[in-house]
Amino acid sequence: MSIVTVQLGQCGNQIGFEVFDALLRDSHSSHGLCCKRENEAYQASCKERFFSEEENGVPIARAVLVDMEPKVINQTLSKAAQSGRWKYGQHACFCQKQGSGNNWAYGYSVHGPRHEESIMNLIRKEVEKCDSFSGFFIIMSMAGGTGSGIGAFVTQNLQDQYSNSLKMNQIIWPYGTGEVIVQNYNSILTLSHLYRSSDALLVHENDAVHKICAKLMNIKQISFSDINQVLAHQLGSVFQPTYSAESSFHYRRNPLGDLMEHLVPHPEFKMLSVRNVPHMSENSLAYSTFTWAGLLKHLRQMLISNAKMEEGIDWHVRPPSSGLPSLGKMSLNKDLHFNTSIANLVILRGKDVQSADVEGFKDPALYTSWLEPVNAFNVWKTQRAFSKYEKSAVLVSNSQFLVKPLDMIVGKAWNMFASKAYIHQYTKFGIEEEDFLDSFTSLEQVVASYCNL
Amino acid sequence: MTQSVVVQVGQCGNQIGCCFWDLALREHAAVNQKGIYDEAISSFFRNVDTRVVGDGGSISKGKICSLKARAVLIDMEEGVVNEILQGPLRDVFDTKQLITDISGSGNNWAVGHRVFGSLYQDQILEKLRKSAEHCDCLQCFFIIHSMGGGTGSGLGTFLLKMLEDEFPEVYRFVTSIYPSGEDDVITSPYNSVLAMKELNEHADCVLPIDNQSLFDIISKIDLMVNSGKLGTTVKPKSLVTSSSGALKTRPKKPFDAMNNIVANLLLNLTSSARFEGSLNMDLNEISMNLVPFPQLHYLVSSLTPLYTLTDVNIPPRRLDQMFSDAFSKDHQLLRADPKRSLYLACALMVRGNVQISDLRRNIERLKPSLQFVSWNQEGWKTSLCSIPPVGHSHSLLALANNTCVKPTFMELKERFMRLYKKKAHLHHYLQVEGMEESCFTEAVSSLSALIQEYNQLDATKNMPVQDLPRLSVAM
C-alpha cells in the first residue's frame, strides 16, 4: 500500500527531500546483507510505498509540495532532479509568491481557505495514482507560519475528505532558544488543532537531533542539511519495509495502519517519538561492531531514562519494582523520573536479527496498567540491513518522552500570552484570544493525561 | 517572490537611495553571472525593453535588457535629483519616477508636510500606483528620509498616511536619519518630533539611525585600516563603507561612506527574502517577530563585520567575534547601548557560509550578558542566507527591539522643549495654513506616551522572572 507525503513550508520541504533520498538510496544499496531475491522484494516494496514510476524508469516521489513562497520548492525540485536517481512530479507542487510571515493565523485563516481547492486537488491526484492507498504522511514544522498554519488546516481537510484514511503528522519541534520569536504561540495552536484532526503525531526535536549531530556524528559545523539527514535516517529506519510478524514471507502491506494500531490505542495519547541505535559517522562505522544484546540494552535504557540519544544515558533510572505501589503522579521536576510507556514498537534490521532478544521490553513495569504488555509491545524483525548499518534498531514510542518539552512550550506561551505580546498579529487574521485559551486548555489536558500514566 | 518599492525623499533620502541602488546593482551582478532576469533581481528592479516607447516595455523573464529601479524619487529642490540623473546611475531611473520642485522646504516640516503635501498629493499617488502596478506581488515600501529637515521629514511622513490608506496590505518600513546633538539645523527638534508622531501612527517598522554613529563607525574603520595593524590584510572591497568596485565610478562625496553603511543595512535586511538559504526570513516575518505591540516598532540595527580580512577560511573565533560585535554599542547605527537596556526581541540575520551550529553556539554564549523582557526570555529570530554580501564571506545584521532607543527619544523631546518653551521659530510653522499650536502639543504628547511605554518596560528590568500560574485541568 502506498503513502502520500505532503511537505509543507521550508522545513517540510527540506526534510521531505532528504527522506525520499534516504529511502531510495537505502533501497538501492548493495549492503543489504541478504540474497538478491530478498533485496529485490525490499526494493519493490519500498518503491510501491513511496514512489510511482515513469516510463523511463525514474521513480517519482509520491509527494505534494506546498509552500507560500517559491524559493525552497524550486531548490527542492532541482536537488531531486540533480540526484538523477529520482524526482518529484512535474505538477506536484503548489506555490505562492508571499510567505506566511511566521504567522499561524495567516497560514490557517488566510492562505488555507484561499488555496484549499488547489491544494486538495493536488493531493487527490496523488492519491488517485495509488493502486492501494495506506494514508498520509504530513511533514511540517510547528514554529513557522506555513508548515504550522497551513499544515493544521490541510490536516483538518484531510480528516473531512478522507475520513477512512490514516494521517500521521511528522512535526518538527523547534530549538528551545528561538528560531522564531512567536514559535511557542504557533506551536500550541498547531498542536491543539492537530490533536483533534490527526491520528498520530511523530515528533522530532531540533535540539535532540542537533546533539546527535554534535556528539554521535562528530560534525563540527552543523548545518540544517546535516540535521535533516539524521532525521531522514531515523524515519527511513521506521518506514522501510519490514516483515509482518505472522508470516515471514512478505513485507508488511500497511505500514501506517500497523504503526497506528500498535502505538495509538487511545485518542487522548497520540504523541510518538523515535529513538535509534546505533548512529554514527561513516568513519566510525567502519571500525565498529555491534551485538543485538548491546544495542537492545542501550535502547531499553534510553526508553526508561528518557534519553534522546545513545550517549550520556542515565543508568541509574530503573523501572519501579513490581509489588511496590506505583510512583503515582509524575512530577515534572523529578530528575530520576522513570519514563512510563503506553506502547512501544521496536524495529530491528540486519544480521542475525532472529536471534535478537527483546524480552527486556516486555517487562510490565515499563508500561501503564491498562494494556497487557503483550499488546503494548511489538517487535518487527527484518533481515535486510538498513543504510550501511549491519545491525540497526529503532524504537517508536508512545510514552512520557514528550511531556517535559510540551510542558515547557505551554509554559512559555502562557507567560507571553499573559502580557498579550504579539496577540494583535493574530487577531488581525481572525484568531482571537478565545482560540488561544482553547488551545491552552487542550494542551494542559494532554500534559495532565500523560503525567498521570 | 515579492517586490519592494523604495521611496526616497529629500536630500538625505536621495543620497542614501543613490548609494543603495549602486550597491544593489553590484550585489546582483556578483550573484547573477549569467545576466538572466530572475526573481531575486525582480524584487528591486524591473527589466525593461528600452526600444519600446512608453510603459509597455516590461519583460518578465530571459536575459536582462535594461534594469530600472523600483523607486520613486521625491525632492523639493532639484539639486540632488539632478545630480543623480546626470550621474552614472541615470539609466537606472527615469523621469517618470521623479517628483521635484525648485524652492525646497526650508527645513520646515510644515512646508514639507502641508504645503508640498497637498500640492503634490495627486502626482505622488499616481507615481506610487504606477510603481505598484509594475509589481507582480508588492510586499513592502521602503521609505528613506531624514527627520531633521523639511522635505524628508515633512513630505516623507505625509507619504506614510497616503501609503497606509492606499495600500493597506503593503508593509511600510522607514529608514529614518535622526539629527545628532550637534546638528546645524536649528529647527531639527521641531521637525523630528512632528515627524515622530507620523512614524508612531503610520509606520509598520522604523529603523532609526543617527549621523554621529555612522561617523564614529567610519572613524573606527579608518583608524584600523590606517593604523597599519592589519597591514595589507584588509580586503578593500569588503569595507562596509566602500564603494570601490562600483559598477560606475562616481566622485566620492563626503557622506558617501556613511550612506554606504545604510545601503548595506537595507540590502542585508532583504537578503534572506531575495536569496536562498537554509532558514529563510521574509520581510513580513520581521514585523511579525519584532513588533510585540503596535506602537513599539523601533528597531536598533547593527552591522558586522565592518571589514573582512583576507583569510578565506574564517576560524570560528573570528566568526564568534562577529557575533559579539553585533551587540557592542560601537557597532550600533544609533547611539544606544542595547546591552545595558532591556530587549523585547532580537533578530539575527546571517549571510554567507555560516551554519545553524555557529548561530546556536553564539546565542548560547551571548545570552547571559543580555537582558530580555520577562515574557520573551528566548526572544530570538534567526535567519541564514547562503549568499554573502559583495566582498565579504559572511555578515551579520542584528535588529533589536530594545529600550535603548529611549534616550534618543528623550533627548529629542528635551531639545524640542527648549525651543518650544521660548516659542523660538514657531511663527515659521504657524504661518503655514492648517498648522496650529495643537499640532505641536499633540506631537510631543505622542512622543511622551511612547517614552512612557519604554519606561514601564524598563521598570520590569531587574525583577525576577516568575512563572505565572497555569490553567488547572480537571482530570
UniProtKB/TrEMBL annotation, chain A:
<comment type="function">
    <text>Acts as a positive regulator of hedgehog signaling and regulates ciliary function.</text>
</comment>
<dbReference type="InterPro" id="IPR023123">
    <property type="entry name" value="Tubulin_C"/>
</dbReference>
<dbReference type="GO" id="GO:0005525">
    <property type="term" value="F:GTP binding"/>
</dbReference>
<dbReference type="GO" id="GO:0030030">
    <property type="term" value="P:cell projection organization"/>
</dbReference>
<keyword id="KW-0963">Cytoplasm</keyword>
<dbReference type="InterPro" id="IPR000217">
    <property type="entry name" value="Tubulin"/>
</dbReference>
<comment type="similarity">
    <text>Belongs to the tubulin family.</text>
</comment>
<keyword id="KW-0493">Microtubule</keyword>
<dbReference type="InterPro" id="IPR008280">
    <property type="entry name" value="Tub_FtsZ_C"/>
</dbReference>
<dbReference type="GO" id="GO:0005200">
    <property type="term" value="F:structural constituent of cytoskeleton"/>
</dbReference>
<keyword id="KW-0539">Nucleus</keyword>
<dbReference type="InterPro" id="IPR036525">
    <property type="entry name" value="Tubulin/FtsZ_GTPase_sf"/>
</dbReference>
<dbReference type="GO" id="GO:0007017">
    <property type="term" value="P:microtubule-based process"/>
</dbReference>
<dbReference type="GO" id="GO:0005634">
    <property type="term" value="C:nucleus"/>
</dbReference>
<keyword id="KW-0970">Cilium biogenesis/degradation</keyword>
<dbReference type="InterPro" id="IPR017975">
    <property type="entry name" value="Tubulin_CS"/>
</dbReference>
<dbReference type="InterPro" id="IPR002967">
    <property type="entry name" value="Delta_tubulin"/>
</dbReference>
<protein>
    <recommendedName>
        <fullName>Tubulin delta chain</fullName>
    </recommendedName>
</protein>
<dbReference type="GO" id="GO:0005874">
    <property type="term" value="C:microtubule"/>
</dbReference>
<keyword id="KW-0342">GTP-binding</keyword>
<dbReference type="InterPro" id="IPR003008">
    <property type="entry name" value="Tubulin_FtsZ_GTPase"/>
</dbReference>
<dbReference type="GO" id="GO:0005737">
    <property type="term" value="C:cytoplasm"/>
</dbReference>
UniProtKB/TrEMBL annotation, chain B:
<keyword id="KW-0493">Microtubule</keyword>
<dbReference type="GO" id="GO:0007017">
    <property type="term" value="P:microtubule-based process"/>
</dbReference>
<dbReference type="InterPro" id="IPR023123">
    <property type="entry name" value="Tubulin_C"/>
</dbReference>
<dbReference type="InterPro" id="IPR008280">
    <property type="entry name" value="Tub_FtsZ_C"/>
</dbReference>
<dbReference type="InterPro" id="IPR017975">
    <property type="entry name" value="Tubulin_CS"/>
</dbReference>
<keyword id="KW-0206">Cytoskeleton</keyword>
<dbReference type="Pfam" id="PF00091">
    <property type="entry name" value="Tubulin"/>
</dbReference>
<dbReference type="InterPro" id="IPR004057">
    <property type="entry name" value="Epsilon_tubulin"/>
</dbReference>
<feature type="domain" description="Tubulin/FtsZ GTPase">
    <location>
        <begin position="49"/>
        <end position="277"/>
    </location>
</feature>
<dbReference type="GO" id="GO:0005874">
    <property type="term" value="C:microtubule"/>
</dbReference>
<comment type="subunit">
    <text>Found in a complex with TEDC1, TEDC2, TUBE1 and TUBD1.</text>
</comment>
<dbReference type="InterPro" id="IPR000217">
    <property type="entry name" value="Tubulin"/>
</dbReference>
<keyword id="KW-0342">GTP-binding</keyword>
<dbReference type="GO" id="GO:0005525">
    <property type="term" value="F:GTP binding"/>
</dbReference>
<dbReference type="InterPro" id="IPR036525">
    <property type="entry name" value="Tubulin/FtsZ_GTPase_sf"/>
</dbReference>
<keyword id="KW-0547">Nucleotide-binding</keyword>
<protein>
    <recommendedName>
        <fullName>Tubulin epsilon chain</fullName>
    </recommendedName>
</protein>
<dbReference type="InterPro" id="IPR018316">
    <property type="entry name" value="Tubulin/FtsZ_2-layer-sand-dom"/>
</dbReference>
<dbReference type="Pfam" id="PF03953">
    <property type="entry name" value="Tubulin_C"/>
</dbReference>
<dbReference type="InterPro" id="IPR003008">
    <property type="entry name" value="Tubulin_FtsZ_GTPase"/>
</dbReference>
<feature type="domain" description="Tubulin/FtsZ 2-layer sandwich">
    <location>
        <begin position="279"/>
        <end position="414"/>
    </location>
</feature>
<keyword id="KW-0963">Cytoplasm</keyword>
